[in-house]
Amino acid sequence: MKSTRLEAETKPTIRSLMWIWPAVIVGFFSIPSSKLVGYVLPVLPPLAYLIAEGLVRKWGEVPNPRFLKGFALVAGAVCLSAIVANNLFNHKTDRHLSSLIAAQRQASEPVVFLREQYFDMPFYLGLTEPVEIFDDWSVANTSKNDNWRKVMADAGKFDPERANRLLIDHSRLEHFVCSHPVSWLVAPKGTEGEYPSLRNIAPLARSPAGNDREPGWCAAEWHRPIH
């Protein structure tokens, strides 16, 4: 009797915790734009608890096998539908641009980013080494906003040598690309107008107009001048 009463008293408390848990995590990590999607994974345990509790209330301790199979099929269909919908309607991806680069790029030709971090492009291109990113990496610039630049700069403090190799000031862009016969530069649309060395280079490709992650991207193939 005592055990039953204790269980009855603690269940509402646990249930409240399981609702607060995901709400706090989703709310907290939705505020900064620099956090990765994987940060939300800790919400899965409380959601699993709430789902299980709901099923127990509906079906009891021993569920009907037919209902259980039906629930599993519906859950599987929902998960597959989410994957298909993401592939069809997710425009925040670099897949299209990556495929155009991959069709012409040689394995020895470096890929570099300018003023932006394209997180999924190394995956689509099958790159085995980190990509150099050219930008204004001064403390004054990286500390202004809580974004990917600040994350990169903070991480660089733990490995300064690696940071110096990968987080390169944009003033060194021309020197870098001219040290390679061919380089592949990926940058936000309009960036070419801000750098004199890029103004006479026609973009190899642009991202689809429907891609709303940036106003548009351009990938330029930069050949080293022959002297």
- The Cα radius of gyration reads 25 Å
Mean pLDDT: 82
**What is the oligomeric state here?**
single chain
The secondary-structure class comes to: alpha/beta
Strand order of the largest sheet: 3-2-1-4-6-5
Give a quick account of the main beta sheet: strands, pairing sense, barrel closure.
6 strands, mixed
Strand content: 5-15%
Instruction: Say how many strands there are.
Output: 6
The global form is elongated
What's the gist of this structure?
The chain is an alpha/beta fold. The protein has nine helices and six strands; from the N terminus they run H-H-H-H-E-H-E-H-H-H-E-H-E-E-E.
What does this structure look like?
The protein has 227 residues and is α/β, with parallel strands linked by helices. The protein folds into two domains: 2-89, no CATH class; 95-223, no CATH class. It has nine helices and six strands. The chain has helices at 2-30, 44-59, 65-89, 95-102, 121-125, 139-142, 148-156, 160-166, 173-177, and strands at residues 111-114, 132-135, 167-169, 182-188, 205-206, 217-223. It has a six-stranded mixed beta sheet with strand order 3-2-1-4-6-5. Helix 1 crosses helix 2 (44-59) and helix 7 (148-156) packs across helix 8 (160-166).
Task: Chart the SSEs and their pairings.
Elements: H1 2-30, H2 44-59, H3 65-89, H4 95-102, E1 111-114, H5 121-125, E2 132-135, H6 139-142, H7 148-156, H8 160-166, E3 167-169, H9 173-177, E4 182-188, E5 205-206, E6 217-223
Parallel strand pairs: 1-2, 1-4, 2-3
Antiparallel strand pairs: 4-6, 5-6
List the defining traits of the structure above:
227 residues; 6-stranded mixed sheet
